[in-house]
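Attaching the record inline, Q. Sequence:
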Amino acid sequence: MTYLGELRAHWRPLLAAAVGLGSGLSLNLYITSIFAPYLLADFGWSKSEFALVGSMTMLTLFCMPVIGRLTDRFGVRRMATVGVIAMPLSFLAFSAYHGGIGGFVVIYGLQIVFGTATSATVYSRLVAERFDLTRGIALAIVSCGPALVGAIGSPLLNSFIEAHGWRAGYQALALFSTTTGVIALMLVPNLPKADAKRASAQRPAARDYALIIRQPAFWILFGGIFLCSPTLALHNQQMKLMLLDNGASSSAAALMISSYAIGVIVGRFACGLALDRLPAHAVAAISMGLPSIGLFMIASGFDSTPVLAAGVMLMGLSMGAEGDIMGFLVMRYFGVQVYSSVLGLTVAGLGIASGLGSALLSLSLKLSDSFTPFILFCGVSVLIGASLFMLLGRASIARMAAAVQAAPDVNDASGYRQPAATASQP
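Structure, as predicted:
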């Protein structure tokens, strides 16, 4: 099958995953900061208090591994259905909320717990099951769902909230996520029974996880993603507040968030194409390291609109590359049978780092009332984390990771093994 032929042959799972992610939990990266100024004005919360909302992403430490394992075992459609029901309900709960910051945090936490069923840990498995030659660009197309919605929807949502209020904004999001979520579920195709059995996790979970955590490739991937992820505290709830703090107007900040989403799209396509053609470890190191330039630009004190917009767009590149890199490297080093299990663990690390980053940002804002110290910290952390990916280029690490793919299923009398050749590719 040719490169473009593979994309044409599997357009339906590609579209299902892109639409599903575009209406799922990842949408929060682009919408929460739009609501932030209105929530703070209505409820009287401080910026440091609101920063603690992001610490709830630490719940992914528990949710993502569970969701990942269940997806490996029962498939994408069953798990995604849970999230498609939960996301609109959470938006409606936000729209009806009256109270202190504590109750808001609880709703946000519940949204994370159940909304993880609409994350890349679930939907990107559709790519892992069906794509080989075009895996990098397929992951890019899928992960652009939320970014495309963010690029188009952020200014529209901001204008809608200004005209109708933030409660109506959450209600509109509930309607949107319901409609697109149902469409995504309808598009998810069934695998042939034989392929579904071979692609699903058949070994006991304890055995799989024991194999996974013994691999250096897992810890390099986990550590690199972890160190690059404290900056997510800025990507999510705080981006508009950060830009307003640097002198941008509300409308300019909304447009800059749109430029951030454009950076995500550019980063994902550039990274996806590069992963299909170049050494994956080098692509990962460069893609994840470049956004540190954007962080240093924002922290520099040069607060002109072009500088801030460029800095935000460069920050978006990391989100653009991150989804491709995690999915691609997990598939390469661990195979499809435990794909969502490994990805769930890795995304849990991302969530922990994001939660710790939110707590650190809250402390920094409380002590200095400035985003700059935290931005500088994130710039350094991103550089260190990105450099770790270069270690994946060592042949010995690739050979050791192949052990997970080569281990036979205890319930498979044929001794079926996921082909391990991909683990040694450049």
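Residues 410-426 have pLDDT under 50 and may be disordered. Residues 135-164 form the longest helix (30 residues).

More tomorrow.
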